[in-house]
Amino acid sequence: MKYILITAYAALNLGDDLFLKILLDRYPSHKFILFSSNNEYSILLSNYNNVQIEYYNKFERFLLRGLTEFNLLFSIRAPRLVGYVHKVLLKNKYKNKCDAYLEIGGSIFIQKDKSLSVKEYKNRSISEIFKNKPMFILGANFGPSINEEFVNFYHDLFSRFSDVCFREKKSYDLFADIKQVRYESDIVYALKIPVVLKEKESLGISLIDLSKRTELNIYASNYISTIVALVTKAIEVNKKVYLFSFCKSEGDEDAINAIREKLPSSFREKVQEICYDGNIDSFLESYLKVEAMFTSRFHAMILSLIANQNVYPLIYSLKMTNALQDIGFKGMFSYIKDMKIEIADEMLHEIYKNSHKLTNEAISAEEQFIKLDSFLNNG
């Protein structure tokens, strides 16, 4: 049995939690240590015997919080300092305890400021702690980035890893000269979904909160108004409508509430909300029974493709168009920035033409783990 330290986006986001589910289901004979400040995962993953949740103790959290406040005052040197403190703390905990390191996630390499952030220096610190042990990055896409410094930083970092497997070709192309870098389909394509009977005349919409996204908040009003028009028209033609939240902390439920407030009062009781709360099986049962899905969430799009639903992507990020290009999707979709009430009728009509048959995506998704398989099962 080997011990593997893992970091992930642990914020009760369905897509990232599916990554963890697939990982833990795959390797029942090894021990994973999920390092996370979110102790809810002790409950969420309590049915798994091969994972334990660990986090900084009270003093360590106090120290890092103080340094973060210092960072706000002196932003030039502080990120590097905080990264160094992470290195000292994590080295003490895991250098001799773990046999390997794994970061698993989707949009985990996004540049938000011109200068390098604490995350970058923390990532470098981890690579230094585990420099003589296998290190893996699985499931990610890269960017968007603002400048070459960010790209060059990660070019150096990825070259230190044993295996970096992206989920799209565009990200791979940026680092194709590094022999350890490759790409396969998104990990969630490998999910074994339950067989769920479809509910006739059902329509679902996965939501995101644009007001929390700096580059998209100017489109929030049109987005909400278009969804309201879409829901209204769907109910008028006797569709059973479901609104799905994949992540409460990112505002999906706020988006649902904004839509409900704008619906005619007589329609509100005809719309059902399905909110992910950490119970993956229950959420999937509700999601997979829907016939057709408008997908604002990336992994809503993936799930709908797996489930053979009619899927109409609502694109907020290039990662969605990149993924659609990689699978040769020919159906209609809309960019969120272009959404307006006038196209709601057309969207509702077009979704029932949008079907796509997956080919080798599930096999490719399994290949995300080929190097980790080799280390854990044969090493």
Q: Rg from C-alpha positions? A: 21 Å
Count of discrete structural domains: 2
Strand tally, please? 13
In the sheet with the most strands, the strands line up as 3-2-1-4-5-6-7
**Fold-level CATH name of the largest domain:** Rossmann fold
Span between N and C termini?
10 Å
Low-pLDDT sequence parts:
none
State the CATH architecture of the largest domain: 3-Layer(aba) Sandwich
Helix tally?
A: 16
Describe the structure.
This protein is of the alpha/beta class. It has two domains: 3-183, Rossmann fold (3-Layer(aba) Sandwich); 202-358, Glycogen Phosphorylase B (Rossmann fold, 3-Layer(aba) Sandwich). 43% of the residues lie in helices and 16% in strands. The protein has a seven-stranded parallel β-sheet with strand order 3-2-1-4-5-6-7. Strand 11, helix 12 (298-306) and strand 12 (310-315) form a beta-alpha-beta unit. Helix 3 (58-73) runs antiparallel to helix 4 and helix 8 (220-236) crosses helix 9 (252-262). The longest helix has 17 residues, at 78-94. The model has no long low-confidence stretch (mean pLDDT 94).
Keywords:
2 domains; Rossmann fold; single chain; 13 strands; 43% helix; globular; 379 residues; six-stranded parallel beta sheet; alpha/beta
Q: Would you spell out the secondary-structure blueprint of this structure?
A:
Elements: E1 3-7, H1 14-26, E2 31-35, H2 41-44, E3 51-54, H3 58-73, H4 78-94, E4 100-104, H5 118-129, E5 135-140, H6 148-158, E6 163-166, H7 169-174, E7 181-183, E8 202-206, H8 220-236, E9 240-245, H9 252-262, H10 265-268, E10 271-275, H11 280-288, E11 292-295, H12 298-306, E12 310-315, H13 318-327, E13 334-335, H14 344-350, H15 361-367, H16 370-378
